[in-house]
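Case 516 in the screening queue. Each case pairs one protein sequence with one candidate compound; here the compound is adenosine-5'-triphosphate. For every case the pipeline is the same: read the inputs, emit a complex structure as tokens, and attach any notable structural observations.

Predict complex for case 516.
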Amino acid sequence: MDSSVEENVPNQTGAESKLAKSEEAGKPSNSIGLLPIMIFLAATVTTAVVVELLPHASKVFPWSSIDSPEDLQQPPPTYAIFGRSPTEEHLVHVVKVLDMFGYQRVGVNESWNLLWAHDYPFLSFASLKNLDQNQLVNHFPGCGYLTNKVDLCTSQLPFLPRAFRLPAQREEFLDYARDNPRALFVQKHNEHRHIKVRAPADIAFGSNDSFVQEFVQRPFLVDGHKFDIGVYVVITSVNPLRAYIYTGDVLFRYCPVKYHPFDAENVDKYIVGDDYLPTWEVPSLRKYYNRFGGSMRTVFEAYVRDQDMEPAKIWPQVEHIIRTTIAAKESDIVNILRSYKTHNFFDLMRFDLFIDEDLKVFLMEANMSPNLSSAHFKPNSLLYEQVLYSVFNLVGIRPLTAASGTLFGESNEMITADKNLATDLNRCAAYDCDKSCNKEECDLCLQCLSGSEYKMLQNAHEEHLHRIDMKRIFPQQIHDLKSFNIMEETANMTKKNAWMTRWFYNKCQFDAAWCN
Ligand SMILES: Nc1ncnc2c1ncn2[C@@H]1O[C@H](COP(=O)(O)OP(=O)(O)OP(=O)(O)O)[C@@H](O)[C@H]1O
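Case 516 output:
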């Protein structure tokens, strides 16, 4: 995969560029016999190669595998920030949390362990193709397949409002508009904001990189106000895919003007803009938020219950939408990743969704580098810092002081050892997987894991132990182990995703805490 392919990734945009501007400011041929050869190789090749070939040889973060007292004196891990924004006001919470964790800030061209990129960094730094094992970047190359609005919204996933790419699908759109005379439409671009409901005759068909989308009518209203919800999502791995959502809270943004009587000319009635109405200013939510200390999500749920409706039906839809969307784009991202030596990437996104009056959920967009600035709405500081605290812990960026500073003295084995990864013991024994790995049944047996597979399981295990307020949505949670059919569930998955899902299934059989 050459870099020109990556340049063809759907335009790497994300709402946060906008928001920052505006809102707030192999297996070793399955043969045990190869292990001694690998050990021999380990003595002769570079560390980076060892990392790929030899199980147990690598630790993502060297500072978590330091053995001697002298190592304790080594300098703290470092982070750099990349972004073309003129101010860094929108990153104050990122800086605050990393500083609090004991990370030291350095320049982007210095030696860093974490690159926090607000803008898509992969076209600016060729070096990201050859990251060291102890380096991490907060985006996946190719994440534009998810965050590019035109590409995502015209994907024809069932939970997206009907959309037509322009100018290519002009005729299809006109047919649809003719067949659905009561339908309203909005035209959207990757970069442009300020969308507005338009009649089909007012659509600019010549506009490239745009699409026209059916406007979802009958929104669920709170005190008469339309709103959208922002769910924070973290992808920690692709091939195999692992994705999580933040459950500590959800960003609710209300339109400042009541929806009815509907007036297409007054966008404040139906578009959530920069000056949205925050939860604490919505009359019926204020009491729950201010007096009873709820979160944006729990006060909304209290309101829904007050309307004799059941809010619990919303969240499984949200999880399904996010899981399905990410899974649908995984292969595109995997293709881009082929030209990257190490895959030390994670991605924090915000999925914006919308709820109609039947509590049916629709996907609006996925934002790259979600807005984390509380300049406009101070009470959002805590939300952003809690999200970051969870994200960082999940991906292995953890506080280095006080109690957690002990990480400096312990080996990674203290967190994740062979016995924490080994599953399928009966099957491994029944199929003699310690003698030969040439059977599918041996795929998860410890002796049959390649170095990179071992590391995948190690990362999955560490993530599980450090989820804080993150909930795994891929591989999917197992709600009822008895009715869960692993063969059926994995039938349409890629080999690696089926493998990873089976590992979680095995862990879930061992302890219910792993089902979730
Ligand atoms: N098809 C639609 N049907 C109903 N409402 C819509 C539709 N498209 C957009 N909206 C409303 O407009 C808001 C903004 O739309 P969208 O997310 O596509 O634009 P944006 O300018 O990128 O906004 P932001 O990134 O701030 O969320 C949505 O949150 C929703 O309230």
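Case 516 observations:
- The longest strand covers residues 227-237.
- The longest helix spans residues 314-337.
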